[in-house]
Amino acid sequence: MAKTANLYARIEPDVKEQAESILTALGIPVSNAINMFYKQIILQRGIPFEMKLPQEKMVDMTKLTAKELDAELEKGYQDILAGRKKPASKIFDEIRKDYGI
Question: What's the whole-model pTM score?
Fold first, then answer.
């Protein structure tokens, strides 16, 4: 049997539960998944997935003045008129992806 080392990590309980549920459905023990992740870090010489900040900072509508709110609403209206629009379901999917939800 290969030598092993112990790994102790603190993780949010709901993140742990959700990830373990998916791994169980895939038939992959958590220790194997962690080992695969570490091996990918070695092979990629870094984190094996893209990590970046969102391209645009979301506007906090609660902190806008009435004039700033009107300007933001006008921008949105002009986007609609120009055909720059997406279905709400696609927007929510993008938000979930960007924030790992």
Answer: 0.51
